[in-house]
Amino acid sequence: MSKVLQAHIVLFVVAVFYAINYIVAKGIMPTYIGPSGFIFYRVFGATILFWIVHRFISKEKIKREDYPLFIQCALLGVAMNQLFFFNGLNLTTPINSSVIMTSNPILVLVASAIILKERITLTKAVGVGLGLFGAVALIALPFFIGRSSFGWSAGNSLGDLMILINALSYGLYLISVKPLMKKYEAMTVIKWVFTFGCVMVFPFGYDQALEVDWAGMPPRILWGVAYVIVGVTFLVYFLNVFAMKTVSPSVVSAYIYLQPVLAGILSIALGMEKLHWIQVVAALLIFSGVYLVSIRRS
What we know:
The chain has 298 residues and is mainly α. The chain has one domain. It contains 13 helices and no strands. Helix 2 crosses helix 10 (219-244) and helix 4 packs antiparallel against helix 12. Residues 149-154 have low confidence and may be disordered.
């Protein structure tokens, strides 16, 4: 088996991890753990694992002058990103969440144009418009037209908006972390980003974290929590790093487009929700927009 094929298999596994995460996390919140409390355990648990692994594979230290950028990345990539995502997922549906997340490349393009002064072509501008319209359709239409008319009982406009903010914050994180990735090892960067992120999520998740009844939690829920912390947060990072040794980061990020498909299949198969035509149209708009934004001239 070639290394390229191995990388693509790994990336598909990563997409499956993320898709299952929508279902698993939705089943845990808020009955067993509040969304902010869940992030508390997720960030602190992953940070401990990052510190343990980093201790064995690297002795690299960060410079004091880079602290502000690390703190900025922690705010965007850990605190805002994860708090908005889990609180949004707690309110809305797995399908909506995964579809809206695919607007991330579009949001990255807009942020790059504003922050990095990168040029936006007409094709990319049309892509941005289509993608954002699709995301707005998922967020606004059920609110204005009425959820019951569309069988959209599980959706929530506020939750969808939180997922969109999460996608934007992660896009800004990707731009902010680029200079750190060039200067330090990847494990060093992620370890310190999560470390600063722990401090930020502490006041938001501490109360909900203390309310968790671990003794009365069913085994399947305990396994679900472990899956989110070890699998989705920690293990997926290593799988992405493994894949990026062979393929480009753009190929890695392209696999995010599988998440809505996989999450949708799982949600429908498990009877958690029914597929509606508005979700299909919104997904097509977002996919079309992302495709136009991703086009590169040879």
